Amino acid sequence: MIEVQSLNINTFRDDIKYNILYDLSLDIIDGEILGIAGESGSGKSVFAKYLLGLNDSNLILKSGELTVDKNIVRSLDDYKHIRGRTISMIFQDAASALNPTFTIGSQLIDTILLHNPSMSKKDARIKAISCLREVEIDYPEDRLDSCPHQLSGGMSQRVMIALALATEPKYLIADESTTALDKLIERQILDLLIKLNKERKLTIIFISHDLSILESICDRVAILYAGELMEIVDEKNMKSNKFYHPYTRALRDCVPRITRESLSSTFRLKTIKGQILQNDETMENRCIFTDRCSFATDKCVKVKPQFNGKFKCVNPIEIDG
Ligand SMILES: Nc1ncnc2c1ncn2[C@@H]1O[C@H](COP(=O)(O)OP(=O)(O)OP(=O)(O)O)[C@@H](O)[C@H]1O
Ligand SMILES: [Mg+2]
Q1: pLDDT digits over 234-264, tens only?
Q2: pTM exceeding 0.90
Q3: What are residue 252's phi and psi, to 5 degrees?
Q4: CA of 257 to the centre of ligand 1 (A)
């Protein structure tokens, strides 16, 4: 289990403090697929990089405790120990994450040997083939000799997943990793991730701004807004469109249903009115979503709502069940 407690990450611009992640506590339960959703700039990638200790140095870790499988992660050494080994990550742009000058085989074999220094090259090659087979790449022996530019987008994404799995991690973070793919290939990659979650018991943190995708694969979805955790939606409520937080409701309403109208060239995607406010110190005693919220009342700007385990709102939408 990964536990994140009271995480605060901020940065300074012109002497003003901005909260990039604010008072965020979130557990990632073994075996689950946890979705992380939110508009662009809500802090999804900063959160993912925090789990691996990869954030830029101008982002200040003000407070927060990270525990991975009961071990507290604090130092650079702690991070080195879990990065790649316990937690792996795949990115949106698979093609640029792979080294263009080396074959798939040499990149896989090098990764395997780096994590298993006592393994023979022959065994590493066998393991590389089995990794490619696990991500359902045809003729894996032949593919070892391919270079990244010879692969299609979907296949590059599979190779990147194979690379991430070569070190036998327990957790996999996928940050917008299917966004660049067409819908059919995206579905195939999602099905592969579901298979790995079931068969390997791989815990997956799947980041996307697309709630309809998260709904189709996640056990729970954490909703971020301007660096704050607004709601955690379980699978049942996700599927039946029941949300406590007005922000989640608004975000869900932006997902288009496929209709004749939505396919026409004049169709405009719905967006949430207004813009995300900068989460600076003036926001620390009020709800950050108030200005865009249709349910806001006076009390929303008087006190910062506390996250109660399910949502963070003083005027939640009433849902039954
Ligand atoms: N190194 C940095 N220095 C200053 N601000 C940063 C830095 N990295 C990220 N931010 C800011 O932190 C906020 C969260 O960024 P993040 O990349 O996590 O958003 P995101 O939810 O992943 O968005 P997207 O959906 O576009 O990928 C943004 O406002 C971004 O500008
Ligand atoms: Mg991002």
Answers
A1: 999 999 999 999 999 999 887 655 556 555 6
A2: yes
A3: -65, -40
A4: 28
Separation CA 318–CA 295 (nearest Å): 12
Ligand 2 centroid to residue 127 C-alpha, Å? 32
Distance 207 CA to ligand 2 centre (A): 8
Please tell me if the CB atom of residue 208 comes closer than 6 angstroms to any atom of ligand 1: no
The per-residue pLDDT for 259 is 57
| pLDDT at residue 132, rounded to an integer | 96
Q: Is 47 helix (H, G, I), strand (E, B) or coil?
A: helix
Question: What are the tokens at 291?
Answer: 């200005």
Q: Which residues of the chain have pLDDT under 70?
A: 255-270, 321
CB 189 within 8 A of CB 217: no
State whether the beta carbon of 35 lies less than 6 angstroms from ligand 1: no
Kindly tell me the burial class for residue 306, based on how many C-beta atoms sit within 10 Å of its own C-beta (0-12, 13-18, 19 or more).
exposed
Tokens at 278, concatenated: 């900068």
